[in-house]
Every structure is written in C-alpha cells, then in structure tokens.
C-alpha cells in the first residue's frame, strides 16, 4: 500500500498542473504577448492600471521647467536720477524703512550712456543698448521702439495686465502700445504723478512700472545732492509712502514684489558719463518671495526685467543679458550678469 503522504503530494502536484494548463489555454492572445509595457499588480488590476503605459507615467511625473510664481504681481518704481547716497541725505524715511525688510544693494550699475531713455530701455528690455538699439534720449516717435522682447511683451502675452505710469513722455518708446493695457503720462511733480495713479488705480495689474521724474529735473537745474534736489527726493519718498499705503489698503502688498531703483545717478548738473556717480544706482526688492539682506551679488539694471519675469514664473528670453537676482530669494546664484560693453 502506497504511503499516504506520497499520494497526497502527488495529487497536489497534479492539481497545480491542471490549474496552470487551464490558465494558459484561457489567456487571450492580445494579453499573452503585450505589444507595449503595462503595469503589473497583484490581484485584480483596475482599468487604470491595465491601460496606463509606463512612458505616460514618466512624462507626468517629470517636473515642469517653468518656475512656480513667487509673486502675484510686480511693481517697479524708478526714481529718475536718484543717487544711492541721496537716500540717507534727503532723508527718505519710507525708503529707509522699506530697506530694513528688503534685499538691497546701493552699488547696482546702470548702462553707458547713463541717460534716461537708454537706461530705462535696458531696465525693462533686459538687454544691453547694443541689442535694444535705443541710442536717443528724447521723444522721437519716428525712431520707433526698443528692439527685442521686453518685459511688457512677455507679461502681456502671458495674460497679465501691464501698466506704465510715467512722468516723461519719451518712456513710451520702450515698448509697443499693443503690449500695454494702460499707459499714462503725467507731466508734473512726483506727488501729483502718484495721486493721478491712486485716483484710478489698476484693479488687477500683473506688471506696473511707475516713474518719478523730478529728482532728475532738479539735479539738472541745481546740481546733484544740492539742497534743492534733496528736498524733492524727500517728496519722492512721501509719494512712495502713499503708493505703499495703497497696496496695504487693498490688501495686496504681501503678494506683490516691489522693486525700487533708478535709471542713473549724476554729478554737478549732468549725467550720461561712465563716472561712478552717474553709473551707480540703488536696487531694492521687497515683498513676495524676498529674503531681507544686503546683497553681495553685483546687480545690473538689466536684472530688473529678469528678476520680474522670474518672480512671475515667466520664461526668460535667452537673448536677455539680465539674470534674476537669485540671492534676493535666498537661492543659489547660478550666474551673474555682466556689465554692458
């Protein structure tokens, strides 16, 4: 008589053999040899698991190349002709208080020639004068506009509201009208320029450029750092205070990146040279995404456009000479921009 344990093992092996044979014979041809990889799971697979290729999952998991926005909007204020040393000499208490919670440098550099229209063109196009081609400093409509893709082109194409509110008419030659949702020219004092803006404040701007003209104007008449110029720098600071208060009232200051800078400095009653007094400008960033600190990065005026685009999560055109001031966001400095030649 056969050993019962041996007989039981034989029966078990025979049953397994029959089960495997049935599974092989019942497997459809389309799934027995799949043409593309599919997910494998234990138990009954779901429809998603059997129909999702591995390649699709890999593409979905790949992070986007565009950075996430750090700010909902950006306000750029240019105080025309403001030398960094005028901030404490005036004094400018609102700006000094803002600097305590800002990433800032008082040694940023503008372009040569250090004149209003070429310098603002580099500030807002992100490129050197050799690329944007603005070599004039008066309002000459027949000369057209700065070359290349500027900050307003980029922002408007992304569906952001673009605003330019300025105290010098010639600044409209920086960008084509089609790239501006709102353009306002106010030929008056900085406080009046500001009040006109507050009277009809844009409801949902993405990028707004504001320009105060009078510090430059008084410098040309009375000289840079003269008592007369410092007095209007103090008034420009008062206008800044009103602008910041408006952001507070609207509850949007915390989500707004604020950049305060200048197009050039000056010496005697002029500017435009390569002298440090003409070339050195303040660069102060406050608000959304910013980590307060004194910057060690060498900032150039073209970096304003690049920093704005970076904060808004917009792609930076490869031809731009400016780079984001990464240090202001406490990010590793990938590279720094170079002074225009």
- At the fourth level of CATH, the homologous superfamily of the domain at 82-204 and 231-283 and 295-329 is Alkaline Phosphatase, subunit A
In round numbers, the mean pLDDT is 85
Level-1 CATH class name of the domain at 82-204 and 231-283 and 295-329 = Alpha Beta
The protein's oligomeric status is: single chain
- Strand sequence of the main sheet, in spatial order? 4-3-5-1-6-7-2-8
| Contiguous runs where pLDDT drops below 50 for at least 5 residues | 1-65
Rg: 31 Å
Return the CATH topology of the domain at 82-204 and 231-283 and 295-329: Alkaline Phosphatase, subunit A
What is the tally of helical segments? Answer: 14
Spell the H/E element sequence: HHHHEHHEHHHEEHEHHEHEEH
CATH architecture of the domain at 82-204 and 231-283 and 295-329: 3-Layer(aba) Sandwich
Distance between the termini: 104 Å
The best one-word shape is globular
Determine the strand fraction and express it as a percent band.
5-15%
Largest sheet: 8 strands, mixed
Percent in helix: 25-40%
Structural class: alpha/beta
Number of strands: 8
């Amino acid at each position: 008589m056969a050993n019962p344990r041996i007989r039981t093992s034989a029966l078990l092996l025979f049953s397994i053999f029959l089960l495997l044979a049935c599974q092989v014979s019942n497997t459809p041809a389309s799934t027995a040899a799949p043409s593309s990889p599919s997910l494998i799971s234990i138990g009954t697979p779901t429809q998603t698991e059997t129909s999702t290729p591995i390649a699709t999952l890999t593409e979905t998991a790949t992070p986007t190349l565009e950075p996430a926005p750090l700010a909902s909007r950006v306000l750029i204020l240019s105080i025309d002709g403001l030398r960094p040393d005028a901030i404490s000499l005036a004094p400018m208490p609102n700006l000094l208080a803002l600097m305590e919670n800002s990433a800032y440098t008082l040694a940023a550099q503008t372009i040569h020639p250090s004149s209003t229209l070429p310098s603002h063109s580099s500030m807002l196009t992100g490129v050197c004068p050799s690329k944007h081609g603005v070599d004039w400093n008066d309002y000459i409509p027949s000369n057209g506009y700065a070359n290349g893709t500027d900050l307003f082109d980029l922002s408007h194409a992304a569906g952001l509201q673009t605003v330019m509110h300025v105290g010098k008419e010639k600044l409209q030659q920086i960008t084509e009208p089609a790239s501006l949702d709102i353009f306002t020219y106010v030929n008056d004092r900085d406080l009046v320029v500001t009040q006109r803006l507050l009277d009809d404040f844009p409801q949902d701007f993405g990028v707004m450029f504001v320009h105060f003209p009078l510090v430059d104007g008084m410098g040309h008449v009375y000289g840079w750092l003269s008592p007369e110029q410092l007095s209007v720098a103090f008034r420009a600071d008062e206008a800044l205070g009103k602008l910041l208060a408006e952001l507070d009232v609207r509850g949007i200051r915390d989500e707004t990146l604020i950049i305060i800078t200048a197009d050039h400095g000056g010496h005697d009653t002029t500017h435009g040279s390569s002298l440090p007094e003409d070339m050195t400008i303040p660069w102060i960033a406050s608000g959304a995404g910013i980590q307060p600190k004194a910057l060690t990065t060498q900032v150039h005026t073209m970096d304003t456009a690049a920093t704005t685009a970076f904060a808004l999560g917009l792609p930076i055109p490869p031809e731009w000479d400016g780079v984001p001031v990464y240090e202001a966001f406490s990010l590793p400095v990938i590279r720094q921009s170079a002074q225009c030649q």
